[in-house]
Design brief:
Blueprint: E1 2-4, H1 5-11, H2 18-27, E2 31-37, E3 43-55, E4 63-68, E5 75-79, E6 89-99, E7 108-109, E8 113-115, E9 118-120, E10 123-124, H3 152-155, E11 161-166, H4 177-188, E12 202-204, E13 210-212, E14 218-227, H5 237-245, H6 253-265, E15 270-273, E16 281-285, E17 291-293, E18 299-301, E19 307-310, E20 315-318, E21 322-323, E22 336-343, H7 345-348, H8 351-354, H9 360-365, H10 374-389, E23 392-400, E24 409-412, H11 413-420, H12 426-435, E25 440-442, E26 446-449, H13 461-472, H14 498-507, E27 511-512, E28 518-519, H15 521-528, E29 546-547, H16 552-563, E30 569-577, E31 580-581, E32 595-596, E33 599-607, H17 623-634, E34 640-643, E35 649-659, E36 662-670, H18 672-677, E37 685-690, H19 691-695, E38 711-720, H20 725-734, E39 742-751, E40 771-780, H21 789-807, E41 810-811
Parallel strand pairs: 12-23, 13-16, 27-30
Antiparallel strand pairs: 1-11, 2-11, 3-4, 3-6, 4-5, 6-7, 6-10, 8-9, 14-22, 14-23, 15-22, 16-19, 17-18, 19-20, 20-21, 24-26, 25-26, 28-29, 30-33, 31-32, 33-37, 34-35, 35-36, 36-37, 38-40, 38-41, 39-40
Helix pairs in contact: 1-4, 5-6, 6-10, 12-13, 20-21
């Protein structure tokens, strides 16, 4: 909320500078976000009175004016403003004056000039040239009693500061100049000048019939008829100036009066054209399908959840938010109806946002407006209307239906002292609360406060503790260092941090991405096989309606984005949370009932496996490239890979990743169906792992350096085509025996015979159709000494026999 400091000081004027006043409000909880002068700096601009204005001899649109600026002689000034006429007082920039900077940022210096052959010794200014407003239709006309030759900054109080307050939603009582002054008086002890509102004499007793059908919408409704008003009357300059300094544009006299009182006292109101109301008014909830054209020109459709004011024919106003166009005041209006009501905050909250706009009235009503001042506000508005627009006032019709209940709140002095962190007596607390004018009753160590009608935020004991703290002064609270021991949370050595995981994946050539946790619903069905995903109640976009249970869809979206921009190679990964239904999860500080939220790490590789190269043909990443990346990421853990099926992966090129007998994720090639659906030129390779398993890190154990050299033997066995590498390695390991001579086995070759044209396998190599040769290098070592052939041959024979027994293998001839 923005307002001029001078208006605030009319209600409360503490002996503080402008900077100190802003600091006091800020430390009292009313943050002053900005403090700036009402006008930019300029010099040597005074009040001038036009004594003579004649037509320029050489220009139809220019006039030669004789201007009195209090120097004893008249100044000859050429002016092109259409309202330059004899008798008005206007700002006059003297020779040597410096006007505010223009669009180029440079100040405008006034010099003696010659316009169409006539010398000009100054410049008559508009409001826009002084950057007081955007009005540039003519000269800024000053009040008739403005002193000739007086400094324009003093005459118009242009050194006044504009304060912009950043109020939290609970400070509804600060949404008016008087409300802020009330808080300033409590903070400083300066006297508060309550605005005197006198009762307007009534000329007739007619009232407009008003029926309130929804007391849960409107708790109090007050109104008055005023007849014979002149809606064409001009708004006084002082009111226009104050509204402008509040950021409000002047519209018409009646609208300006309503806005002025809203800024002054915090009570929004509305003025109807009485002659356009059919019968009486009814305050009720809307009906489905009813339409209303608002003052802003929008036509809206209301329903049963929106409050309205209607007459016998149609809806005339959106309750507490904006009036309707049908009963708006125009230049032909003669009789009006002034309304001020108390609308329940719960009935106004969120309604204007449903129609994509917001108003000052709705902003105040949805936070809470003092219900006890509706009649006083109408008296204030009526007095201003009669003073400015004339007319005669009728009796006030005041209906009180249901007002907020003032529930007492008890403050325990001992608890207040403990929460605030400084010694406080009961007298200190009472003195602080009395400065706010809060009704209270004292008990033994307690203070029972009854919130006044303008305080909607005093509901629990903590609210009173906050009031005491801010009136004592946050800057006066003692600074006490914590006494509790501070112990650093050291991560165990058997666990690596998430940053280390990110660094390891990045070292493999991947780039990190960060994506939304809410995704498209069909991703969950296609890529995770999740037919019942967790749905969002209020998604930010229609295509982002469910919570993801897998990271793969997010990575595919990143891949598609990069391919569409001609990226030749993509390596991306993400560490993120996924969301799955799990009835065993209970609600705690970090969990939600029924929803498991584990962290996972996923990666995607697409394009050339080795990046840019200067020789050789590019080769796309395959299953073994991504498998190697997973092994490097998990090292020194030794994962195993077993064939599996996954909704997102190719049926024959997917494996589940296991560590210590537990499944920790999957790795494989994207399913051809989804590759075609996403329109990818080639299939990407993907992996997704549980982050907890990835962060596990077994501690290294020191091993003695072998004293004797290892001995190697190569064998080649013929096995069926269906025998896998894993089956071969397991059979070899099971044959190593108790002596433990075998230290390692590595497959280094696979040979398959070429099939002849007639379908028969050639005799070379002794392999039949459906067989293959697998060559393995065996490494033997012993701590006792160097192994001999007599020791090695039985071990090799045992391995060959085991391969024959388990796999039907035979030595290749």
């Amino acid at each position: 909320m923005q307002f001029p400091e001078s208006w605030l000081r009319e209600f409360c004027n503490p002996p503080l500078t402008s900077e100190q006043l802003a600091e006091t409000l800020t430390m009292g909880g009313f943050e002053v976000e900005e403090r700036k002068p009402a006008a930019p700096p300029f010099t040597k601009i005074v009040v001038g009175e036009i004594k003579e204005a004649v037509q320029h001899p050489n220009a139809d649109k220019l006039r030669v004016c004789q201007v009195d600026v209090g120097q004893g002689s008249l100044l000859n000034i050429v002016c092109g403003a259409p309202n330059a006429r004899v008798g008005i007082k206007v700002p006059c920039a003297l020779v040597g004056a410096e006007l505010p900077p223009g669009e180029d940022g440079e100040p405008f210096l006034i010099k003696v000039g010659k316009l169409r052959g006539v010398e000009s010794f100054g410049m008559l200014c508009s409001a826009r040239e002084l950057q007081l407003s955007e009005d540039h239709g003519g000269l800024l006309e000053l009040a008739a009693d403005s002193p000739v030759g007086g400094d324009i900054r003093e005459v118009l109080n242009l050194d006044d500061a504009l304060l912009t307050l950043k109020l939290t939603p609970n400070l509804a009582h600060g949404l008016s100049v008087y409300g802020v002054a009330r808080e300033l008086a409590a903070l400083t002890g300066a006297p508060l000048q309550t605005p005197a509102v006198s009762q307007v004499a009534t000329a007739f007793t007619d009232v407009l019939p008003v029926k309130v059908e929804a007391p849960e919408l409107c708790g109090r409704f007050s109104g008055r008829i005023v007849r014979g008003v002149n809606t064409k009357a001009a708004t006084p300059a002082w009111m226009v100036e104050r509204l402008a300094r509040c950021g409000q544009r002047s519209v018409t006299a009646l609208v300006d009066i309503s806005n002025y009182v809203m800024f002054e006292l915090g009570q929004p109101s509305h003025i109807f054209d009485l002659d356009k109301i059919h019968g009486g008014l009814t305050v009720r909830w809307g009906k489905a399908g009813e339409q209303l054209k608002l003052l802003n020109g929008n036509t809206i459709t209301v329903d049963e959840k929106v409050g309205v004011i209607a007459d016998e024919r149609e809806v005339e106003s959106l309750a507490g938010i904006m009036g309707g166009d049908a009963t708006s005041v125009t230049d032909d209006t003669q009789n009006i109806y002034v309304e001020a009501a108390f609308w329940w905050p719960e009935a106004i909250q969120g309604r204007s946002r449903r129609f994509n706009f917001n108003t000052d009235a709705g902003h105040r009503f949805e936070r809470g407006v003092d219900p006890s001042r509706t009649v006083q506000v109408i008296e204030r508005i009526t007095q201003l209307i009669i003073d400015i627009c004339g007319g005669q006032a009728g009796a006030i019709d005041d209906q009180t239906l249901r007002l907020p209940e003032a529930r007492p709140v008890t403050l325990r002095v001992a608890r207040a002292a403990r929460v605030i962190g400084m010694p406080l007596s009961q007298a200190d607390c009472v003195a602080a609360l009395k400065r706010l004018g809060l009704p209270m009753e004292e008990g033994e160590g307690t203070i029972r406060v009854t919130p006044p009608p303008h305080r909607f935020d005093l509901l629990i004991e903590e609210d009173l503790i906050e009031e005491v703290a801010r009136l004592v002064g946050y800057n006066n609270l003692p600074t006490t260092p914590p006494l509790a021991p501070i112990t650093a949370r050291v991560r165990p050595e058997v666990q690596r941090g998430r940053f280390d995981v990110r660094r390891r994946v990045a070292a493999l050539g991947y780039q990190e991405t960060i994506n939304f946790s809410f995704v498209e619903a069909h991703w969950e069905q296609d890529l995770a096989g999740n037919a019942n995903p967790i749905k969002l109640l209020n998604p930010i976009a229609s295509q982002m309606s469910v919570m993801r249970s897998s990271l793969l869809g997010s990575l595919l979206q990143v891949l598609k984005f990069n391919i569409d921009r001609k990226a030749p190679r993509v390596r991306v990964f993400e560490l993120g949370r996924v969301f799955r239904r799990d009835d065993s999860v209970a609600t705690t500080d970090s969990t939600v009932k029924g929803i498991h939220q584990p962290m996972r790490v996923a990666g995607l590789a697409w394009g050339d496996a080795e990046g840019s190269r200067w020789q050789g043909k590019a080769q796309g990443a395959d299953f073994f490239d991504i498998k190697g990346d997973v092994e490097a990421l998990l090292a020194p853990l030794l994962p195993t890979f077993e064939p599996t099926e996954h909704p997102a992966l190719h049926p024959g090129r997917a494996a589940r990743v296991r560590v210590d007998g537990c499944d920790i994720g999957v790795v494989g090639e994207l399913h051809p169906r989804w590759r075609q659906k996403w329109e990818l030129p080639q299939a990407p390779m993907l992996f997704e792992l549980d982050l907890d398993a990835v962060t596990a890190r077994p501690l290294p154990v020191a091993q003695p350096v072998p004293r004797h050299q290892a001995v190697e033997r190569d064998i080649a066995v013929v096995v069926a085509e269906a025998v896998t590498h894993d089956a071969l390695m397991q059979a070899i390991a099971s044959a190593s025996g108790d002596e433990g001579l075998l230290q390692g086995a590595n497959l280094f070759d696979i040979y398959r015979p070429q099939v002849a044209r007639d379908g028969a396998a050639p005799a070379a190599g002794g392999l039949a159709q459906g067989e293959k040769s697998m060559a393995v290098r065996l490494s033997f070592q012993s701590d006792a000494g160097t192994l001999t052939d007599e020791q090695i041959e039985p071990a090799v024979r045992a391995i060959i026999d085991q391969l024959g027994a388990r796999l039907g293998a035979r030595l290749r001839g």
